[in-house]
Structures are given as structure tokens and as C-alpha cells.
Design a protein that fits this description.
By secondary structure, the protein is α+β, with helices and mostly antiparallel strands. It has a four-stranded antiparallel beta sheet with strand order 2-3-1-4. It has six helices and four strands; from the N terminus they run ααβαββααβα. The longest helix has 22 residues. It folds into two domains: 27 residues; 118 residues, Alpha-Beta Plaits (2-Layer Sandwich), CATH 3.30.70.1060. Belongs to the YciI family. Pfam families: YCII. This is YCII-related domain-containing protein.
């Protein structure tokens, strides 16, 4: 009886070890893809995050605000199409920092990110302000954008 339990446990441990090894297998390194994305040895690279905050200008005219938001979204699409923005979106809840949304720009230069964020009509109108931070993340981050169109039925 002890031998059966021992053999069963040995088989179970061996199976679990094999499954764990299989699961932990590292994908084959793709040097061409890594080079095209500008990765470092860890598959990472620097980006710049821009946190949008509530600006000093309050726009009460609903039509004017709608126009500014359409311009804001069109500018995001333009910057994304140019490869400058890799992530953009609003926060779903109010927060004590008054962050409204964020961009992750495909640059390590805070100055370049600031030039790009200043092309936003809502920034220009003072509806949004911003804070800029350097950030380090996966160099593969921009790859999701090419698939986003496949999963969205409408553009905002």
C-alpha cells in the first residue's frame, strides 16, 4: 500500500514538474522584432507618460465643449497613427489628484512629449492641463494598437 502511494505521489510530482516546466518555457527570442521595437536586453524601453488634469478653463457652452472633445479625440487618433501615442484613455473615476486621463508617448524625451501634447485642442483651450513623467515599460506595448481596430465597432 505504501509503495502504491509513493508511486502515485512520484508520478503526480513528476507530472506537475513537467507541466510547470512546459508553462515556464521562454518564447524564442526574435532579434528582428526586438530591433524594430528598439528594445534593451530586457525587452523594455523608455516612454513618457502624460497625466491629463483638469485645466483652469471651464467651458459652459455645450457645443463648444463637444467641439473641443471631438478635436481632442481626433488629435489622439492622429498621434496614434503617427506612432507617437501608444496608450491613451480617460480615468473612469474621480481621484484626489484630479487626473482625468493619460497618454503614454513613444518617446523618452519629456520635451518631445510636451510638444505633442500641446497639439491637443483641449490642452490649448485650457480645459486640460498635464503632468509629465518618464516611464520604463515593455517595448512591445505599441503592438496592441494594430489589433485595436479589429475589436472596436465604433470610434469614440
Amino acid at each position: 500500500m505504501k509503495l502504491k502511494i509513493y508511486l502515485s505521489l512520484t508520478l503526480l510530482v513528476a507530472t506537475l514538474s513537467f507541466a510547470q516546466e512546459k508553462k515556464a518555457e521562454k518564447p524564442k527570442f526574435n532579434e528582428e522584432l526586438a530591433a524594430s521595437l528598439g528594445t534593451d536586453q530586457y525587452g523594455m524601453k523608455p516612454y513618457t507618460i502624460v497625466m491629463l488634469t483638469t485645466g483652469s478653463t471651464k467651458v459652459d457652452d455645450k457645443g463648444k465643449m463637444e467641439e473641443l472633445m471631438k478635436g481632442h479625440l481626433a488629435n489622439i487618433r492622429k498621434l496614434a497613427d503617427e506612432g507617437k501615442i501608444v496608450v491613451a484613455g480617460p480615468f473612469l473615476e474621480q481621484n484626489k489628484e484630479n487626473y482625468r486621463g493619460m497618454f503614454i508617448f513613444n518617446t523618452k524625451s519629456k520635451e518631445e512629449a510636451e510638444q505633442w501634447v500641446k497639439t491637443d485642442p483641449a490642452i490649448q483651450a485650457g480645459v486640460f492641463s498635464y503632468e509629465i513623467f518618464p516611464w520604463y515599460g515593455s517595448a512591445a506595448l505599441p503592438l496592441y494598437l494594430k489589433h485595436h481596430g479589429e475589436i472596436s465597432k465604433e470610434k469614440p
